[in-house]
Amino acid sequence: MTMTAMVAMASALALSVEGLCSGYGGDDVLHEVSFTVPEGGITCIVGPNGAGKSTLLASISGLLRPRRGRILLHGTPVEGHSPRQMLSLGLVHVLQQHSLFREMTVRENLDLGGYTIHDRAELARRRARVHEMFPQVADWAPKKAGSLSGGQQRLVEFARCLMLDPSLIILDEPSMGLAPKVLRSVFDAVTLMNQAGKTVLLVEQNARAGLRLASHGVVLENGRVRLAGTGREVLDHPEIAALYLGGQASRP
Questions:
Q1: pTM
Q2: Which of 37, 44, 145, 230 is paired with 204 by a 20 to 30 Å CA distance?
């Protein structure tokens, strides 16, 4: 492979994880984990409880320092970076737990997403772009965040993360705790962010829905990558379907 081809391949990847070992208290949860996140797509990580999915996201975003391995963000090594450094490089991590300040208004929470923006005019421009993408968030602006439903709070969290104009958005279990009728709006929001040019990496408990949404899929089991491929390939894999998806995946 020529150097030009290698550079082109690297530039097509938003994220590359190579041989990652990470865990807590000296014990590894992740064992030599390697996978890639293509630029401009949606990559969904699925697997059973305890597989290490949230540990993996925390290791990528700087919340947890890996013991060994490499993490390349747009080709730049970032393993060991702090969460603030990762933010400055365009990576935003939306945690599994709701993280809005409940007694503050939706607008105040939204503006906190742009806390590193010191130009008020630029902050207003970012807010306007977010409102254009999520007009319902603009409607909720004067409400206290704690008065919103779980699904509404999740949309505000998505809107808030966009205030920093990230290139890569990490979502940890975005549908966790939400009623089935609300899931569609959350997944539609993920698709909308992707269509706006954001690369998305998500862990999703609803494996079937997540893989249908995704362009690429990764199966994590016991801290190791069991399978990786397109979302369709992972969804249709007979062994994976039997183990994690409740039987053979049916085509839409």
A1: 0.88
A2: 145
